[in-house]
Amino acid sequence: METIRFDIDADGIATLTIDVPGQSMNVIGPDFLADLDTAITRIASEEGIKGAVIASGKDSGFMAGMDLKYFGSMLASADGQRPAPTAIFDNVFVLNQLFRRLETAGKPVACAIEGTCVGGGFELALACHRRFVGDSPKTQLGLPEILIGLFPGGGGSQRLPRIMGVQASLMYMLQGKLFRPAEAAMLKVVDGVVPQGTALAAAKDWVKANPTATTQPWDVKGFKVPGGAGGFNPAFVQTMAGALPMTLKQTQRNMNAPIALLSAVYEGITLPMDRAIRIESKYFAKVAADPQASNMIRTLFVNKQAAERGARRPKDEPKAPTTKLAMLGAGMMGAGIATVAAQAGMDVVLFDRDQAYAEKGKAHVEAVLAKRLGRGMTPEKMAATLARVTPTTDYAALAGADFVIEAVFEDVAIKAEVTKQVEAVLGADTIFGSNTSTLPITKLANAWSKPENFIGVHFFSPVEKMPLVEIILGEKTGPAAIAKALDFVAQIKKTPIVVHDSRGFYTSRSFGTYVQEGAELVGEGINPALIENAGKQLGMPTGPLAVSDEVSIELGVKIMTAAKKELGDAYVPQGSDDIMVKMVEADRLGRKNGKGWYDYPEGGKKHLSPVLGDLFPRADAQPDVEEVKERLLYRQLIECARCFEEGVLETPEDGDIGAIFGWGFAPYTGGPFSHMDTVGIAHVVAVLDRLATAHGPRFAPTAQLREMAANGATFYRPVPSRAAA
Fold first, then answer.
1. Which residue numbers delimit the 3-hydroxyacyl-CoA dehydrogenase NAD binding domain (predicted)?
2. What confidence category does residue 288 fall into, taking pLDDT thresholds of 50, 70 and 90?
């Protein structure tokens, strides 16, 4: 066997050590399934084998889920068409049958878990008669498939509820929430938490002591699901009756997998396991056959991991980790960057013009760390992390820094002054990164003697929570700067995308259209509540008016005013410009002053302001919600397409990752480019033409989109050469 080492000790206990070659983490693929089949046959048929233990031969952990290359092959046929759900069912049910054979082999089987055990790996563990896990605080267990558009398809949706009860298991599966060892033991998901490195010995001891423990609880006559199940059980009925509307509300009816999971649990929980896993496989195949799943897997898992592993990093550049960071600006953004850098083990000089501001920045670091005490953070670790942050107003303190990030006020002149002061201390050979959300990097780089060493490093607020970093290349940015920035992002465990220079770059520019279209709709007299609900039903985290308040209406006007001044006659006015100015003139600046599109009463709940009806009189005829959703969606899609045509984006992968993790673009689509591919470029062009006719040239399709539609091309297949930018 290539993926499993099979050893039998003197007590007749077989140890199956999983070590999939060529993989950093064990995953389920065709070779593993074949080897597991062989191993189960031996366990069941050889009299000398008294029981078995399954363990991992890798230091990275026990096992993750299915090899996504293998899963992808299930979803592709020779003619390029997606296979029918029945074909996917045939493949998936093989896995379910294997796990079922394991738990009914007539021998006790225990699982020894050290490190990560998730997805299909955790479903394998659930099929064992006992589970022992090492007590490492880094170990995580569970079924996170829902987060990438799937749900547990290897028996997990049937075994976990039978172990911990329907209500509790649904809470974990519907959120993709993972267990730590102690939590898993408390919920009886594992049977023993033992000192790290001793799980194998504990599992062997149990098998040796329990030679007749060969039957799962659910295979014993009279078994009852913890907490009850079935149509005549009040608790079960109440759980399922509440779970469906809550799930529909949270997903806005956009996600396939959560509803399929609820159906599989509801239908399978009172049936014998052999029938239950068939039902699970049926629903899993239906979900997997829809493009939604493959789009989400591609962006949220495959391409995200590739980006984090350096897909866009210049291959010939040596590794350039940051040891000492010069962090310029101690406001919320600078303090947030200082926090994640210090947590990653870097020394951070936190610079500001005023010592009180610099100290306040360090206090922010302390406050963030304090909230994590008891959740992986100890007082000793907190003290060591804080000691790495040095607040200062002295440029000389920056000496020895090997990377600079600037996050001072969004003004070209102020940034240029700070940049020159830093170069005087560190020299132009140091890589300089500017955290700006809109100002062109090429222009900012003029203040650094070697613009090839100047790069944009755009973080999102709050830095500690937001996963994306947008790396922006100026016209002269060189490979050493790209490598340094990407290595820094890897150190702080964020997800990078790489884009080219443009006012607003990719994320701010494209996200801004969502806010702008919301304002345009208000200006046309559309009911603000309709606009907000349409945004949420579209799958956005919040409505365009609410998010406009959060980022500040006043800030949007300042950015617009600066762009007008900078571009002159080249500036293209938007209908939303006058609307936003009118809001600022009415002193409605956003949440910052307690009144924007919403009112924020002290001690009360925010609500859409009745003043909006006076500022923007309500139109007699209101559109339906689908029309509003379409406008909010396609205004974003066309801007993303423009970024691609202009070369701001080089790849659709960066576009999809940046949209979902940068501004919360509807995750169920897999991102704007995946969505356009799925509905068809010709359809996208037709909708945009209709919207442009009705609402203006901001919706006009790009020349590249028209060319792609004519040629049947998609963003993820080879596309025609770009129109000249």
1. 324-501
2. very high
Residue 458 bears catalytic tag: yes
Which of 242, 262, 289 lies at the terminal end of a domain, its last residue? 289
Together in a domain, 432 and 492: yes
Q: Are residues 88 and 197 in the same domain?
A: yes
Q: Which residues make Cβ contacts (< 8 Å) with residue 398, sequence separation at least 6?
A: 326, 349, 351, 404, 422, 425, 426
C-alpha triplet 321, 324, 327: angle, nearest 5°: 110
User: Helix-strand-coil percent breakdown of the chain, rounded to 5?
Assistant: 55, 10, 35
- Per the structure, the count of domains in the chain is 3
Do 446 and 565 share a domain, yes or no?
no
Q: Is residue 295 in some structural domain? A: no
Residue 687 has pLDDT above 90, yes or no: yes
Question: How far, in Å, CA of 76 to CA of 353, rounded?
Answer: 58
497: domain range?
324-502
Instruction: Select which of 129, 458, 500, 675 is catalytic.
Output: 458
The structure's pTM equals 0.94
The pLDDT tens digits of the residues spanning 53-77 come to 999 999 999 999 999 778 877 776 5
Interval 492-525: pLDDT, tens: 999 999 999 998 899 999 999 999 999 999 999 9
- Residues forming beta bridges with residue 253, ordered by sequence position: none
My answer on whether 100 and 227 are in the same domain is: yes
Sheet holding 141-142, edge to edge: 61-63, 116-118, 141-142, 178-179
pLDDT in tens, 108-150: 999 999 999 999 999 999 999 999 999 998 899 999 999 999 9
User: According to the model, what pLDDT value does residue 79 have?
Assistant: 52
| pLDDT > 90: percent of the chain | 90
If asked whether residues 498 and 514 sit together in one domain, one would say: no
Q: Is residue 37 domain-shared with residue 182, that is, in the same domain? A: yes
